[in-house]
Description:
Order of helices and strands of chain B: EEEEEEEEEEE
Radius of gyration of chain B: 13 Å
Strand content of chain B: over 45%
Number of helices of chain B: 0
Number of strands of chain B: 11
Strand content of chain A: over 45%
Distance between the termini of chain B: 38 Å
Number of helices of chain A: 0
Mean pLDDT of chain A: 93
Number of strands of chain A: 11
Oligomer: heterodimer
Mean pLDDT of chain B: 94
Amino acid sequence: SAVISQKPSRDICQRGTSLTIQCQVDSQVTMMFWYRQQPGQSLTLIATANQGSEATYESGFVIDKFPISRPNLTFSTLTVSNMSPEDSSIYLCSVGGNYEQYFGPGTRLTVT
Amino acid sequence: DQQVKQNSPSLSVQEGRISILNCDYTNSMFDYFLWYKKYPAEGPTFLISISSIKDKNEDGRFTVFLNKSAKHLSLHIVPSQPGDSAVYFCAARVAQSGYALNFGKGTSLLVTP
Lengths: 112, 113
């Protein structure tokens, strides 16, 4: 499995601002995914990010709110835009393919 | 709606005994199931998986059982160790619908000495 790191590990942000989360993988991977875990809830897929193409967003998530970049096969960013307290969550990137997915340590975001 | 359900938010087991974590699902199209373990301040760690064409998969102390007719799967940990104390997530996917994993809300396992 790949080694995945995320920055920042946690942050406290004011409403209305934006935060960009970085995900770095130690090997080249085709597919990267961004998940969110709201307090007391399960993990929910936000989008799938493939290098060289637009991210594919799941129902309920839009590019204007969660823009994603995937400049190469080892790196991706997720931006949480115009934040509100409801965006307070753990954001996780993962890599994988047809079967298992492997997760980074997560970014714990608190919006005040 | 929650397609993968873990109805027990917590479970406490004595060291050396068997831990059984349960998971129910509603989508009959799920064809691959996974279990993840999560420690505080870490991301979920892949533990074990099973394809819908099988009813059992074993890896060391961990065994996953799948009962398709009941739409139920379980994770058995034998023997349980204090280091197994973590939150366990059940996840499922439909291969033909992309790569999205549908997760349950997790079960917090505490293994006491």
